[in-house]
Design goal:
mainly alpha; 10 helices
């Protein structure tokens, strides 16, 4: 039995399935408690049902991105592990980036035929350790951070100056986008040589199409009062970017 077959074995499905089932059970418990709390507050049952229906509807398309992530990683890490990661706490861009970086540091790539037990253990360990700090920092410093955000929003009232929260989010996204674009440009140039720009331009094309798609969705949402697009814009932009990559290589 190959390593990839072992990663998709019944044992792996059982281990990961138990964890996913536990998280799903917690979600159901909170949903039931939220419904009961709404009833206790005297909220209209019809409006509560409408909220549930809208939430389910707006969750379908964004979840397509998660499914694509599971499919993309299943060829190298099996199905159970990506399913667990992306069902509980992972994010598509994070999981693929860390898995690829870990594989490259081990001298290989994310390919099923080259995956070893040691490589999977290292990749799985890094994928887990690198993302847990958000939970730890939130537990230790979340209350203080929220208080700082509240003070920033209070100071912003009646002022045109951005709050601390706005600045922090803007800085985070600029840094993240710059890191990704820098890696794409670097890979493109390094793969092409010093003067002949013939490297892999697919990531740059995907980034461009996704950015333009997101800009269009944002413009429609804000200027055309199509707020319902907010729930679909990220997943739709991802799908359009992937479609652009497929079309470019036809």
């Amino acid at each position: 039995m190959t390593v990839l077959e072992q990663l998709s074995s019944g044992t792996m499905y059982l281990i990961c399935g138990v964890i996913v089932a536990f998280v799903a059970m917690v979600c159901v418990i909170f949903m039931v408690r939220a419904w009961r709390a709404g009833k206790a507050l005297g909220m209209d049952t019809t409006r509560m049902k409408q909220a549930v229906t809208a939430s389910v509807t707006f969750s379908i398309l964004p979840s397509v991105g998660i499914l694509l992530g599971v499919i993309a990683l299943s060829g190298s890490l099996g199905i159970p592990w990506p399913w667990l990661r992306l069902s509980v706490i992972g994010a598509l861009h994070y999981e693929t980036q860390v898995a690829q970086a870990a594989a490259e540091q081990l001298g290989g790539t994310l390919r099923g035929e080259s995956m070893t037990a040691g490589a999977f253990s290292t990749i799985a360990f890094l994928m887990s350790v690198c993302i847990m700090w958000g939970m730890i920092f939130t537990t230790l410093f979340g209350k203080k951070y929220l208080a700082r955000l509240s003070r920033g929003n209070e100071n912003k009232a009646g002022s045109d100056k951005p709050s601390f929260g706005d600045k922090a989010m803007t800085a985070m996204f600029i840094g993240m986008v710059s890191a990704y674009l820098g890696s794409y440009i670097g890979a493109y140039i390094s793969g092409a040589g010093a003067f002949a720009l013939k490297g892999d331009w697919t990531p740059l094309l995907v980034a461009l199409v996704s950015a333009l798609s997101m800009a269009c969705f944002t413009a429609l949402s804000e200027k055309k009062s199509m707020r319902w697009l907010d729930s679909f814009s990220i997943a739709a932009s991802m799908l359009l970017g992937m479609a652009a990559a497929v079309i470019a290589h036809l």
